[in-house]
Amino acid sequence: MAHAVPGAHGHDHAHQFESAAQQQEAAALGMWAFLVTEVMMFGGLFLAYAVYRSVYPEAYAAASHHLNVTIGAVNTAVLIGSSLTMAMAVRSAQLGRRQAIILFLILTMVLGGVFLGVKVYEYWDKYDHHLIPGLNFHMDGPYAREAEIYYALYFCMTGLHASHMIIGMGIMVWLLVKARAGWFTASYYTPVEMFGLYWHFVDIVWIFLFPLLYLIGRHH
Amino acid sequence: MSSTHHPADPSSEHPAHAEHTGHAGLVGHGAHIASLGLYFTVFGILMVGTVITVAIAYVDLGVMNTPVALAIAVTKATFVLLYFMHLRWSDRMTSLFIGAAFVWFGILMLFTFSDVVTRLVIPFPKP
């Protein structure tokens, strides 16, 4: 009760919960429920990807060759790095280390920013090479029209993923402000932990997107 | 302000750890705080997995290229889930929720492909 966390109403848990542990448990379960719905949303795109790939495998391989594996791999490493710094931010919160939370949130934002910057470059490169369906798509070879399906899915999937990251960057700004104000302590850090789950989920999506989009048919 | 801990909390490395033995494995109060070494080990495994998945993509494994790539991705995702997302120390309800997501995705794929693979593929119309 003596816990004077701004915004936590002077308690370490809200009145409808029996304890702070129960409150945290409820928040975590709610976050996981949200992530399950996220699996459903991305799942639809993965399904569309799988169906069209099963029908036009050669076209997928041909279209995928226009992506740069090195750039994709480096960006994968950057995103995994941001997951590490996010895990460190949560750990710092568990230990009640305010300065460390701020530091690791900033590092996570920097790495997320690098990933998005590289993504912008890749999108620009696709525009430059006339690979944007509905805008300027043009590809030579026998699989041009089928390849357009691949690129439509490429932009939907990476676009939905990137929009999640942009939203995540916004939430991190909010977390930074609250961390600076001393909101988070060793006994209350739920927002940091819940955001960590979100950020790691986004990382997992990319772990699947990278091989499925960049690495198909490379051995030919 | 940030350094003031709850009076009941031992304000050291393991806040509130002993208080909630009945809630062992929950996040938050009584949460397991993983060591730095563990996080860096998981990070290392994820990096090695990324290198392997790129390297193996250039090896001709016939029809096995995609299953191998997916197996590596599933392994990487499992490490993220277990350690970065603390599933290793979470309760069964959390596992149930995650399991529900996978079951749902399995139904989506299974039922769709049971249709797709039993159809005649019509060649893409050429302009």
How many helical elements of chain A?
Answer: 6
* End-to-end distance of chain B: 70 Å
Could you state the oligomeric state of the chains shown? heterodimer
Figure out the total of helices of chain B.
3
Q: What fraction strand of chain A?
A: under 5%
What would a concise description of this structure say?
The complex is a heterodimer of chains A (220) and B (127). Chain A is built from six helices and no strands.
Structure overview:
The complex is a heterodimer of chains A (220) and B (127). Chain A is an all-alpha fold. Helices cover 74% and strands 0% of the residues of chain A. Chain A contains 6 helices and no strands. Chain B is mainly α. Chain B is built from 3 helices and no strands. Chain B has helices at 36-57, 65-84, 92-116. The longest helix of chain B has 25 residues, at 92-116. Chains A and B meet through helix 1, helix 3 and helix 6 of A and helix 1, helix 2 and helix 3 of B.
Question: What is the element layout, followed by pairings?
Answer:
The complex is a heterodimer of chains A (about 220) and B (about 130).
Chain A (H helix, E strand, L loop, with lengths): L19 H36 L1 H8 L4 H26 L3 H31 L15 H37 L9 H25 L6
Chain B lengths: L35 H22 L7 H20 L7 H25 L11
Helix pairs in contact in B: 1-2
Key traits:
heterodimer; A: about 220 residues; mainly alpha; 6 helices; about 75% helix; elongated; disordered N terminus; B: about 130 residues; 3 helices; flat
